[in-house]
Amino acid sequence: METTSFVSGISRKDAGRYSRQLLVNDFGVSGQKGLKNAKVLIVGAGGLGCPTATYLGAAGVGTLGIVDYDEISTDNLHRQVAFKESQVGQLKAQGLAENVKLQNNNVILQVHNVSLDSSNAMDIFKNYDIICDCTDNVATRYLINDVCVLLKLPLVSGSALRWEGQLTVYNYGEDCPCYRCLFPNPPDPTTVTNCNEGGVLGPIVGVIGSMQALEVMKIAGNLPGALSKQLLLYDGRDGKSRVIRLRSRNPNCAVCGENPTVTSPIDYVVFCGAGAHDKTENLQLLEKSDRVDVEEYREIRKIKKPVLLDTRPPVEFEIAHLPEAINVTLDDCRNFKLDDLAERTTVNSANNSEAYVICHRGNDSQRAVLLLRERFGAGFNFKDIVGGYDAWAQKIDDQFPLY
């Protein structure tokens, strides 16, 4: 075959593979080259990390790093769509990297099977150009933000819960705020809900993760329109989205301000009062004498029909509950009057002042016991069931649904 002289902006191989995105106005050859030269780190190989990594790998990112310490579990599969049933038990970062490699063998994959913390974040991040926060806990968000500011790296941040998702780009462009500019102080850990507790629909994380990949492509291609100083809010229930303007960088910000006090990573678990992971904390709010384990409760219900208050939301109560359970949510406990309690249950001041309290994992039930005691005084005996329905399913009835 005859070879002719021509001028090419991109290789024949890349032109054939990425032709459809090369044809997009404003992206083209320069955008593709920028993406191919980019080194992108994804923190969190879960619901957001899966679509972000998959689309960036397919689009031809040069180097893709993935950080995650966790293993793939069955309850991940409904939303972490890069994984297959055969991968359950495998490390997430490794599994996601393997699937990206199957999609595009040209991508350089860097796997970090570690729990990201203050001791390793700087060493990992310094090898990348763009960071994607695909995590689900506050402590790690502050850590990722601070390290990005210290290393002058743009941060593409996504989040999703239930029907809703959010997306923004921090620390990118003139006067762009960082996460700390907007949230200088962490929230009360007892008010924070993650997917593990509040749930999320798979397409929601799919939408936000895909859009995170899109923001990376804009930044890598040096294109206008990145969500810097803007926050996209997506409502999947109504099928609507809107973008709100964020305030500019805070000159008093502890990490990116004019006189920063955070000049290296700190202890974010202490700062946030919560663990740097999305696992459910096992709270210890009550004395041992105020709690019964599931084995004890099994024996109690053999002797008599106890009053069992189930503090879960109605949507969880519907999944499964013990026959004697009465759905009295945590919000109900905050607002109950004595007449309300007597009307909903057999607990009253005259002849029955004893009740047991259960929830999903044994945390909200402890909070409920404290609330009920505060409202009704020492004359009422409320006891928490340790470990909640999770413990019941694991130790008493292996047919009881785990979720």
From TrEMBL:
It is found in: Cytoplasm, Cytosol. Zn(2+) binds at residues 178, 181, 253, 256. One of its GO terms (molecular function) is URM1 activating enzyme activity. Its EC number is 2.7.7.-, 2.8.1.-. Binds 1 zinc ion per subunit. The keyword 4Fe-4S does not apply. GO terms for biological process: Mo-molybdopterin cofactor biosynthetic process; protein urmylation; tRNA wobble position uridine thiolation. It is an enzyme of class 2 (transferase). Plays a central role in 2-thiolation of mcm(5)S(2)U at tRNA wobble positions of cytosolic tRNA(Lys), tRNA(Glu) and tRNA(Gln). Acts by mediating the C-terminal thiocarboxylation of the sulfur carrier URM1. Its N-terminus first activates URM1 as acyl-adenylate (-COAMP), then the persulfide sulfur on the catalytic cysteine is transferred to URM1 to form thiocarboxylation (-COSH) of its C-terminus. The reaction probably involves hydrogen sulfide that is generated from the persulfide intermediate and that acts as nucleophile towards URM1. Subsequently, a transient disulfide bond is formed. This is Adenylyltransferase and sulfurtransferase MOCS3 homolog. It comes from Caenorhabditis japonica. The lineage of its organism: Eukaryota, Metazoa, Ecdysozoa, Nematoda, Chromadorea. The gene is moc-3.
